[in-house]
Amino acid sequence: MAEKDLIKENNRLREKLDPRYKKVYEDILVYIRVNTSTRSHETEAVLNTLLKQIIQTQREGKSIESVTGEDYKAYADSLVKELPRRNLWRLAAFLALILVGLNLIFDYMIQILFRLIDSAALTTTVVSIPFILEIVITASLGIGFIYTLFYAFSQVAFKDWPAWKEYGLYFLIGAGFFLVYLLIDRFLASIDSGPSFEMNMFLIVLLGIILTILGFMGIFNKK
């Protein structure tokens, strides 16, 4: 069966699950999605088999543990081992491109807006050292954020946590990285050394757009 047909059938079969079975299946589904490559025929085939096994178990009135065992995470890990793994370095690198690109776009578009209001020149003095450091640090923080988020998810997966506690953890991780970024950005703004040159702000925005597009192209590339 083609991958698209498997996806449609899996969505249809999922709706046949009772709430208890559906909750466990969806936890396993998310865990597999996070740890394996997207758009994988093998992944959809494994999920299809799992759904059919759970539906059969449900019809027989057995517990879902008769399929998965008592340790849901161990069972999910056994499935992940047989599937194409997600290249987390690749994902993090392209997300870093997007973060750097968006940072340049919003930062300099705001400056352009104020310059237009004041009828000021649309050029800026770019100090090379802090400019390059900001790009490198933004990319590094982006990669660190993705790895930390994935690690946190793998640790809390299948734990009986209330939604506010789990999402609160993810929020704290995001807020922590954002705070570190603000502190570093404040420090970089105080650096005024190294070669400098005048540059049109629209060219910097264009650079940001190119980096953002490259990042999205890399993420959504099926290869």
UniProtKB/TrEMBL annotation:
A Pfam cross-reference name: DUF1048
Cited Gene3D superfamilies: c-terminal domain of poly(a) binding protein
Stretches that traverse the bilayer: 88-110, 122-147, 167-189, 201-220
The keyword Cell membrane is assigned to this record: no
Keyword Nucleotide-binding: no
Keywords of this entry: Membrane, Transmembrane, Transmembrane helix
Protein name as annotated: DUF1048 domain-containing protein
Organism: Salinicoccus bachuensis
Lineage of source species: Bacteria, Bacillati, Bacillota, Bacilli, Bacillales
